[in-house]
Amino acid sequence: MTDAGELRRRTQELLAAHPPATTGRTDFLTARFDAGLAWVHYPVGLGGLDAPRALQAVVDAELEAAGAPDNDPRRIGIGLGMAAPTILAYGTEEQKRRFLRPLWVGEEVWCQLFSEPGAGSDLAALGTRAVRDGEDWVVNGQKVWTSSAHVARWAILIARTDPDAPKHRGITYFLCDMTDPGVEVRPLRQITGEAEFNEVFLTDVRIPDAHRLGGIGDGWKVAQTTLMNERVSIGGARIPREGGMIGPVSRTWRERPELRTHDLHQRLLDLWVDAEVARLTGERLRQQLVAGQPGPEGSGMKLAFARLNQEISGLEVELLGEEGLLYDDWTMRRPELVDFTGRDAGYRYLRSKGNSIEGGTSEVLLNIVAERVLGLPAEPRTDKDVAWKDLAR
Q: What is the pLDDT of residue 53?
């Protein structure tokens, strides 16, 4: 059993063999992966050492103290938080060895081709079709709200392979090469002025059956692993006290006493406490992950994340008064990541509106929490056993 002392020893050996000051970033990250210090809880040979997940903090602390580079997790968050755990759970050995290292090192960015114009909240109603043709699948359809599609090399994709089956049972999960012919990415300009999201059109895209993840028709089950990990990665990210959206408004309160009122003080205190409770709950959720897989509790964290971001950003704009109505830059650009704290209050206010939609709408997540956490009766569903092709659209 690998313990904390053993991990410290291995980390120091990595630093001695590949000094961060003289080793290129990609070379260092590759060496770290090969040493099993990327995800210590992953299997040997796949970036890990079969060690307890909680011991990752030991490695991270040693490397941070040595000034070692990280893999820019915000830029490759979809790969790290969604694609990797799904490939680990359902991928073949060949798929794991092909995809996990370049994913973790950041050489290959991933995106998520799930939502469609007619299948967002009801994702299982998706209509993108994949038809078997020999050793390939031919895919046609449209996906939407795709973060990072403009910089992604690979995508996790779910498509309908059996329209005669009920909607949840006729879906298959694929790994799609975004550079293949027939993949077209178009920007979606948002209220912030940026085009961080995209819509993706798939026209006769050929995906080898070797890039299918899980069994034919098992795509919904595989996708649940992705979605549960997505909600944990959005709502349960590790942040310090006064990290995230509560940080900027707290600093403004301390540095600008002329803006304070009694009412704003009371509201800020309430939101500060809520943010701290959410942060500590997220820490507890991550500790639970050490013993198993993410469950529906991640949906609760994602709900809290969306509500808090919107309420805190609204308070910040109100606190700043006329200054809060200003906006720094409406330039149309296609960023590689979302930076909530690096922009002004106006950006945070506008961008947070999307938090209750992305990663599962708040309304859908409320149902998940009600049914799977609280054990309340499920809502009546009349389409559960109806063939997808017979559904009203």
A: 85
